[in-house]
Amino acid sequence: MTDERRKIMRVLSGETLSPPPLWLMRQAGRYLPEYRETRAKAGSFLDLCYTPDHAVEVTLQPIRRYGFDAAILFSDILVIPDALKRNVRFTEGHGPEMDPIDEAGILALKPDGVIAHLAPVMETVRRLRQGLPLETTLLGFCGAPWTVATYMIAGHGTPDQAPARLFAYRHPKAFEHLLMLLADISADYLVAQIDAGADAVQIFDSWAGVLGEKEFEAYAVKPVARMIASVKTQRPHARIIAFAKGAGYQLKTYRQKTGADAIGLDWSVPLAFARDLQQEGPVQGNLDPMRVVAGGKALEDGIDDILQQLGNGPLIFNLGHGITPQADPANVAALVERVRGWRG
Length: 344
Ligand code: CP3
What we know:
The protein has 344 residues and is of the alpha/beta class.
């Protein structure tokens, strides 16, 4: 009933809306002064994620400023390893860190208690659904098993995910076990978010682009397909966006193989290819976040190309990856105005 007012839900069901609805990946974050203010009050980054008062506040900040069509729950994909007791920490200037896991550590992982540990996140979702305008879609999310595993194996972010790729060649059984365990926990976590009030969920596979052909199938497609099947078996009406960054040509079959309702596109996906993908269902993306930093003509041209090429089919306008801290909030306002002013 309320879904009719939530434009992103309509696009996720296959409708074309003109202008397309929009939200931005990482729309709550350091480019906003009000985020930096709440962040300074909250203590550690994980405290921010686990304190519903603060997490609700930062989720709502970009909605108040820009009126995006979706709010995305403020949290992080690394709350799953945190709940698995991997000692996750976010130290200023270091990015995320945790204890690196080995074969024995993987076999000793205990999934019980993960959802209970994440209860504050579900409380945030409940409060958000109550506090958001009826027309705003509330998105939950989690990381895809491959992307989360890359951090668990290395213990930190790496430019090319070499530690996880190497581990997978050396210890294929333990690696498969890790991915399947993450898939099952993450599916239950998404179901818990949906039950708490999330309208739809996004799965972030930010590091899908470093995988070879067979590895993409085994580590990006298979676990995500397992997650989506589990979520849809448990909650048949769930809507799911899958974002496999850098997947390139592999996107051709990604929707069909994973069962995702919509697929996210990074900015390297050619718009002609994106149109082909859109023939099979909704797409989301794919503006280069650097165009938002650049502003002016670079921003306008990038927006116009996407709208012209993809605006006459089911599209959720978004960036091709998260907005960066150096983006000027005024450029985001210009982006919203331009997308909203488009008449296809
Ligand atoms: O607004 C939103 O999109 C919701 C919040 C959100 C965050 N992280 C907040 C965050 C979401 C959806 C994520 C997902 C996430 N986290 C991903 C997948 C998407 C992507 O961007 O590829 C990944 C790989 C992570 C892991 C992670 N968390 C990294 C690599 C970092 C450090 C990056 C940095 O810029 O320092 C984080 C920290 C993080 N997560 C921040 C935010 C706003 C910045 C931390 C801070 O405020 O100090």
